[in-house]
């Protein structure tokens, strides 16, 4: 706390030191050995689970992961730029987002946003997320089959 008290801060919140103390603590956590490797391991595991779930249900899914940050698009081809992202299945993303929300998993509400894993996420959190993903992907597949059966768009 001393370093936060001794630091000149000029902003709208210049009297509020808690944010700066939290930032310093975050940097200390990130400096710990294997932090970034652990973030990558967690993110890659979750994305692999999502890819497997989508694949098992015949749902095209493109993914990107870097460290603790990940993204995914319901698309047939790799997403490398805005145009590719804009061509992804936004309706399917919306249904996936709402399904995950119903399962208690809060994702970014836009397909154009990234997801983030933190050191606070436990193995239990990740498994709960993967289980919800499996359930929602299966529901998306079942809904697409019933729509095809009845000739709906």
Helix content: 40-55%
Distance between the termini: 59 Å
Number of strands: 3
Backbone shape: elongated
Helix vs. strand class: mainly alpha
Which stretches are low in confidence, meaning pLDDT under 50 for 5 or more residues running? 149-153
Instruction: Tell me the radius of gyration.
Output: 20 Å
Helix and strand element order = HHHEEHHEH
Widest sheet: strand order?
1-2-3
Largest sheet: 3 strands, antiparallel
Question: Count of DSSP helices?
Answer: 6
Q: How much strand?
A: 5-15%
Q: What's the mean pLDDT score? A: 88
Note down, in words, how this protein is organized.
- The chain has about 150 residues and is mainly α.
- About 55% of the residues lie in helices and about 10% in strands.
- It has helices spanning about 1-5, 20-30, 35-55, 80-85, 90-100, 125-150, and strands at about 60-65, 70-75, 115.
- A 3-stranded antiparallel beta sheet has the order 1-2-3, with helices on one face.
- β1 and β2 form a beta hairpin.
- The termini are far apart.
- The model is unreliable at about 150-153 (pLDDT under 50).
């Amino acid at each position: 706390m001393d370093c936060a008290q001794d630091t000149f801060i000029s902003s709208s919140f210049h009297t509020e030191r808690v944010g700066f103390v939290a930032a310093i603590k975050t940097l200390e956590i990130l400096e710990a050995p294997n932090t970034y490797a652990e973030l990558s391991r967690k993110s890659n595991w979750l994305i692999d689970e999502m890819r497997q779930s989508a694949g098992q249900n015949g749902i095209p899914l493109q993914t990107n992961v870097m460290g603790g940050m990940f993204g995914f698009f319901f698309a047939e081809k790799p997403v490398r730029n805005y145009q590719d992202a804009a061509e992804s299945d936004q309706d399917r993303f919306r249904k996936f987002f709402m399904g995950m929300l119903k399962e208690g998993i809060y994702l970014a509400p836009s397909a154009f946003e990234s997801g983030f894993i933190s050191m606070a996420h436990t193995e239990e959190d990740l498994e709960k997320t993967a289980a919800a993903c499996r359930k929602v992907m299966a529901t998306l597949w079942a809904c697409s089959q019933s729509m095809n059966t009845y000739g709906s768009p």
